[in-house]
Structures
1.
Amino acid sequence: MVPHLSTALTGPLLGLEKKFLAEMPNIEQWFRSQWLDYAAPFYASVDLRNAGFKLAPVDTNLFPGGFNNLNPDFLSLSVQAAQVAIEKVCPEAYRLLIIPENHTRNTYYLRNVVALVNVMRQAGLEVRIGSISPEVTEPTEFNTQDGHTLLLEPVVREGNRLKLKHPELGDFDSCAVLLNNDLSSGEPEILQNLEQSLIPPLHAGWSRRRKTSHFSAYDEVASSFAEMLGIDPWLINPYFSCCSEIDFKAREGEECLSLKVDEMLTRIRQKYAEYNVDQEPYVIVKANSGTYGMGIMAVKSVEEVIGLNRKARNKMSVVKEGLTVSEVMIQEGVPTFETLNESVAEPVVYMMDHFVIGGFYRVHTSRGVDENLNAPGAHFVPLAFEDPCTLPDCADSPETLPNRFYSYGVVARLALLAAAMELQAQDSMAQLVA
Amino acid sequence: MVPHLSTALTGPLLGLEKKFLAEMPNIEQWFRSQWLDYAAPFYASVDLRNAGFKLAPVDTNLFPGGFNNLNPDFLSLSVQAAQVAIEKVCPEAYRLLIIPENHTRNTYYLRNVVALVNVMRQAGLEVRIGSISPEVTEPTEFNTQDGHTLLLEPVVREGNRLKLKHPELGDFDSCAVLLNNDLSSGEPEILQNLEQSLIPPLHAGWSRRRKTSHFSAYDEVASSFAEMLGIDPWLINPYFSCCSEIDFKAREGEECLSLKVDEMLTRIRQKYAEYNVDQEPYVIVKANSGTYGMGIMAVKSVEEVIGLNRKARNKMSVVKEGLTVSEVMIQEGVPTFETLNESVAEPVVYMMDHFVIGGFYRVHTSRGVDENLNAPGAHFVPLAFEDPCTLPDCADSPETLPNRFYSYGVVARLALLAAAMELQAQDSMAQLVA
């Protein structure tokens, strides 16, 4: 059950991990005081890359799917964290409406909704699922790939409240609305100006969110954390930059892209020299909004972004829901040195409120260590992230799984904190506009 | 790993459990709003008795030992709850001083301290153990029965702060002092008027606490909860009464005792008739302060408390630390209908802050269903209290373990809430006096 971690490469990360373990009380105190200033998102997942010489977040998802891939042995941990999260949102209420993605034909995604609903129900909430899909016009049961059924009901807006109306189950008026829909296609009118708490808020959706805003906030977090620990922030932070006014189809923006890619490869090369990393630097070019591993490519030289062929340009030009890509983030590529059964693996860490509740390895049998693994063909291996280690000396060896996971939890929480800052800044902006 | 619960007896409790499960959202909402008014104790354990026809707490320990008996698989749940508890006590600090019981020769008790320290360290605290035992005059390593070592250091009072001073480890000045010492022998001067947060507070110790105060508060909690659910509070609440001015050695107070025992047996008999319970009522007479299962007897008729022989009187007259018993609580005996490998068993539920973090069965191979199991010869079986149950319909069958444990968690938290009310009332009193 415990995934085997390849520890053949033992670079500076072991040093970093040792540092994290030794400084655990300082780190936890630092997080405690940060959470006094910033409200943690309700939930989030963070994709990490562990390069051996550095450990960094590469993507932070504020509408996490994949709850079904968490280790069921740790369900109670999710339930407890959900209780804390709910105490903040609805201390005196008990009905929760969950709005999932519209793609009701993705039976794997629906399985995630089943798992999420289960966590919330176990936390003591009355949960129903409201769809904003135009295809769901009456209460309908859907099946997951493994035989669970899920009742989706069309949401009804009454004044500024979202409700459900079911002939047998009756009306449902919830205290809060939990979005598991990343709003890639925009902010539907039906969700605007609600009386109910909408979590996460509308501006957390991909119609407004920019990856570069997140990583700007992460720059701040990583610097402050690295300063506290006395380490180089680069060890936990991938470089990034941005090109706007990109149009892949019209070959617009190539110049910016090649300039930024070149700059970044040079910066990475310098760091690799400083840390004696004997690998070829690469960068990831990805759409500044959006998810699902669409609109993303790995690049090792400037030549690769000049004169892209039609197929590559098409692939880069659209993301989920057919949206056109007009801004890209250029991100330092962090190779993974983790393998699971000889396949390349990267950890994904799940959090609810400010607690780490689990994670899994995203594993790809046909991708390389420097490629995006969030692609068709990936599979998931639940992470048993804490060994029943009650020996007082089990914290001594950083090669063991619980300790490695502590570092993962630290870096994932740094990204969570960045998301909290990012959302808080957007909140202030949204209030200024309103 | 999952203990087998005998469910041969399926009395009204199944009805109660069904009720709890059906009303889970209401119950959890009720708890959430209670915790807005009352601060949960830092930690507690509650002894429950499940009679089949009723499920009730019989003892609430505010200085729980036995952390080593919790299921190690759920360590992460304790750690998460400890993080919440610590956020309230020391949001911006990270040093915790734990003061254990003085009986350093009890290697099993010390094993509990090792487990407790481990939880707190995993929660990210720097923990050291300070002893107030006159026998610990310099930093000393003690061994547990299973080969762990534990460093106990004598506490040093400087002004109104408790500190540790170790020639190599250096000085230790903590934000809070966590007591795992129930103060049976009084409130030592060294712990009085501390600047540091003392948790639980001095008045939670057995030198001031009375079981009858706890169960008075529990009366309130149980009535309010039962009213919310529309059930008879007796189903979750054992009758109790009190005799003061008892002196077993001098045969003083026998009259009060026999009167109260008689009254209570009559009341139980009426309830048994009402619920068609075909069992012989009994009461438990126990010292109104104190723990460790000392000063306690089970009684089925008035005759048993009149003319106690010398041996019985001696046994009843002293509790832990040799204190004389001058007040007793007469408590309705709740038989247990649970057995584990044909031995009588009762669940003990552990909580930290307002979260259930685990539990175990106290099992006694040579005691009956109507006897106190907290006695020499008892052993402990960790409770796996939540099955990885992610099926949406797994809540339907109340016979399964996770569901049974939900009821245990509910009743244990009711007792926790009573403890919170009890401590809050004492806080107010203490402030009036000061």
2.
Amino acid sequence: MSVSLYLISVPSFQKHLHALDGILDKAIAYAAAKKIAPETLLTARLYPDMFNFTRQVQESCKFAVGSVARLADMDAPNHADTETTFEALKERIAKTLAFLSTVTPEQMEGAEDRPLTIKVGPNEMTFTGRDYLLHFALPNFYFHCTTAYGILRHNGLEIGKRDFMRRT
Amino acid sequence: MSVSLYLISVPSFQKHLHALDGILDKAIAYAAAKKIAPETLLTARLYPDMFNFTRQVQESCKFAVGSVARLADMDAPNHADTETTFEALKERIAKTLAFLSTVTPEQMEGAEDRPLTIKVGPNEMTFTGRDYLLHFALPNFYFHCTTAYGILRHNGLEIGKRDFMRRT
């Protein structure tokens, strides 16, 4: 008994992208209630040389799309990073979820030991599909989802672990 | 071809606990160089009702130990949350890594479909071992590692994604 790459990736990405979508709804309501310009939250960051909130959401989407496409040996849809509103970020998440829903477990069969080479900055890194998912894509995805959450928490949005985990 | 619960859990926890240990070394050097009282960083948090840095590290260790013990059907070692220095947090991580190194893949065999019930606040949650790892333990572990990183970044420590990912 063991677990397929599909089960490790797609449902995890779906769950936390839905969670992020719910957090965006709360951010929209918070900005309206407190008369905070949405741009203030969208461009907030934890330190001047870190990515801002908008980019954290975009990176979460990119790691989900890019890793699933690589593991399923498909072309990734090209989603440009043009979002400047909460609503556009919700659309980006919806496009990401729509792509994930088209991928089947069968498309990832055999990817565990297939070598994958990716560019990270100026370097190339080669992994097996399994190590790429477990030690690159998944921690990066959670890193950006968590940092998006942390930026809004730091800016006073009343959300909790329950929102991050999307427990109902 | 697929992936065992052991490979999804133990090497991921080991990698990111080693990364956290390296970040603690940089925090010690930073506090000394900038004459920042270590307590200032150890008790830093992103918002008043969030866990502070020390607790984020403790939670990272607890999710690693607790989940691996549950999946391997072992008693978890009882590591009390008494750390008040960077050095003590490094010892906590060392104890956590020492426990993880005692667990074998064989001990987790068959855990995928075994039901697990855990307490979350006042509630009980029941998962299969697979869902518990993928949709509870792993995202919580990465949540606390990332937030520990984010707190130190927010306080000016010069670390980057490379430190979080422990790329060498």
